[in-house]
Amino acid sequence: MSQHVRDIDLYHKVVSEKDSSALRQLYRKYEKLIYSFSYKMTGDKEIAEEVIQEVFLKLWKKHSPYDQSKGKFSSWLLTMTRNTSLDALRKRKKHESVEYIEKDSLQVSYETPADIVEWKEKGKAIQDCIRALKEDQQRMVHLFYFKGQTQQSISNSTDTPLGTVKGRIRLALKHLHSCLKGKGGGTE
């Protein structure tokens, strides 16, 4: 029991007097316990070392004050270690996700000037073919593909029966397909 009182005395010296020698004594006494507890939780030596530093920094800054009525000092320290370990794991996981995304984005191939020219040519061919459609088919294609409306909403907004809307879109696509094939734009 006298050892328990001694921990409390050291703790009070740390938080009320900013006594660095009291902090060093607590550190020497508990660093191995905190390290092994954190290492068992995280499976990572680097994180476990960071957790030790963070726990003692929290103790120094009175992050979450110890309440003697709620249990032993060592139990409170281990609870703080557990929470700090979980926080460190979350940060690491979030950081790894960001690194993964950045790494993947580096693998994105950028379009070459030739690709851009090809897309412009295909775009012009598509526009020409759309202009060759009947006016009602052009309107359906525009509303459906460029405005993103559903066939039902096109039917409602144009006062056209749903079957007619579907038929015009289907017929327009058939004409577009034939037109693009004839222009060498093929549909891949």
Principal-axes shape call: rod-shaped
Going by helix content, strand content and strand pairing, the class is: mainly alpha
Tell me how many strands there are. Answer: 0
Order of helices and strands: HHHHHHHH
Rounded Rg = 34 Å
Average of pLDDT: 81
Beta-strand percent range:
under 5%
Report the helical percentage.
over 70%
Low-confidence segments? 98-109
Draw up the topology in text.
Blueprint: H1 2-17, H2 20-42, H3 45-60, H4 73-106, H5 113-132, H6 135-146, H7 151-158, H8 162-182
Helix pairs in contact: 1-2, 2-3, 2-4, 3-4, 5-8, 6-8, 7-8
Description:
The protein is mostly helical. Helix content is 80%, strand content 0%. It is rod-shaped, with a radius of gyration of 34 Å. The model is unreliable at 98-109 (pLDDT under 50).
Task: Throw out a few tags for this protein.
188 residues; mainly alpha; 8 helices
Offer a concise description of the structure:
With 188 residues, this protein is mostly helical. Helix content is 80%, strand content 0%.
